[in-house]
Amino acid sequence: xxxxxxxxxxxxxxxxxxxxxxxxxxxxxxxxxxxxxxxxxxxxxxxxxxxxxxxxxxxxxxxxxxxxxxxxxxxxxxxxxxxxxxxxxxxxxxxxxxxxxxxxxxxxxxxxxxxxxxxxxxxxxxxxxxxxxxxxxxxxxxxxxxxxxxxxxxxxxxxxxxxxxxxxxxxxxxxxxxxxxxxxxxxxxxxxxxxxxxxxxxxxxxxxxxxxxxxxxxxxxxxxxxxxxxxxxxxxxxxxxxxxxxxxxxxxxxxxxxxxxxxxxxxxxxxxxxxxxxxxxxxxxxxxxxxxxxxxxxxxxxxxxxxxxxxxxxxxxxxxxxxxxxxxxxxx
Length: 332
Description:
Layout: E1 23-29, E2 32-41, E3 44-54, E4 58-65, E5 71-79, H1 82-94, E6 108-113, E7 119-126, H2 133-143, H3 149-167, E8 174-175, E9 184-186, E10 192-194, E11 201-202, E12 205-208, H4 210-223, H5 231-234, E13 239-242, H6 245-260, H7 266-271, H8 275-280, H9 294-303, H10 314-331
Antiparallel strand pairs: 1-2, 2-3, 3-4, 4-5, 5-7, 6-7, 8-11, 9-10, 12-13
Helix pairs in contact: 3-6, 3-10, 6-9, 9-10
């Protein structure tokens, strides 16, 4: 299972690939003979153009469809055990369970087997040349700019729609569990598309006993970005239910980050203070700025709620965003 620690539009140094069964064609490009890796998926042929990014669990390459010339992203998940392979396959299998414009679709996938017991799960996904929301936030921070409140709310509404589709999935509701700006891609027309299903799981998990609680806590520490991680995942109780409200907390942190270009708990992290205690104590504040309305700040505060039972549903958030958008449009 991979949890989104890759950069989708940044070229980084290549790494050695292990256990990929491929063929290579020699192509003449600009008078040079260049060998490109070729991959076949159920009769479709792709060529690897270059490395887009890499992370602790996977790497991403840029692909080109041999017939159409269309670009795709190839996520390679290296598996060193049967459990690794099972989880990587599970990630691919989550894609067709929910079809929604704000969730990244699956183009193709397969498993390749190499030597030494190492396999790779290869997942072909659409390529988004604009990159992620985090890329845009970084550019805005560099330029000293910001997202207008109207566009911010429209983007956030789309992300909420995608998360709501997961929470309403049938027959088993799902939770993403790693919602953050780096896991939101932007299409050419600006539509937000949630990616990286490596952290996904059934929405409701009943924890029975201390050993299971520690296992869930350790998994969250490994797979869920701590600056957007819900408090119930920092310290998992021995007898509790972890549900889809973990995504709601992350959405609140995401909304704050879209407005103020960082997680609400980033200052605590930068100081080296305990992030766990800051999250449990809801220790964050809004910058001194009149850039955004009090309604937006109140919405953030109503979402980042420590007690799970008091935290709203995604459906409630969508209702509030719609009201805010209607009020803004009436004022124009």
